[in-house]
Design a protein that fits this description.
single chain, alpha+beta, four-stranded antiparallel sheet, two-stranded antiparallel sheet, 6 strands
Length: 115
Amino acid sequence: MTLSPDGRTEIALTGDGCACCAVDTAADASAPDSAHRHGDDAALVEASFGVSGMTCGNCVAHVTEELAAIDGVEAVAIDLVAGGVSSVTVRSAAPISGAAIAAAVDEAGYRVAER
């Protein structure tokens, strides 16, 4: 913490967000999904796209929750680029329409973007 010339207290933050919205994604990333446990990865379809506007682990959690709610989605992986365009990969049993993906991302409060 430092005191600025105008009397404000400045607190240095590290990482991709503040402590109040940080989500421990380590447990989620290491937890095997049903496809990994059953060994049928080859049967899954992958769709990758960009999402803009996410800044922290809580943002990632919201987008992941909405995408995971789509029928057939087995796994969601997000490579957060705070304030930029984050890479999102959805693995599903069958192809998911772009409209369904865009609607889920929109429901979470973000938008699909060009990468």
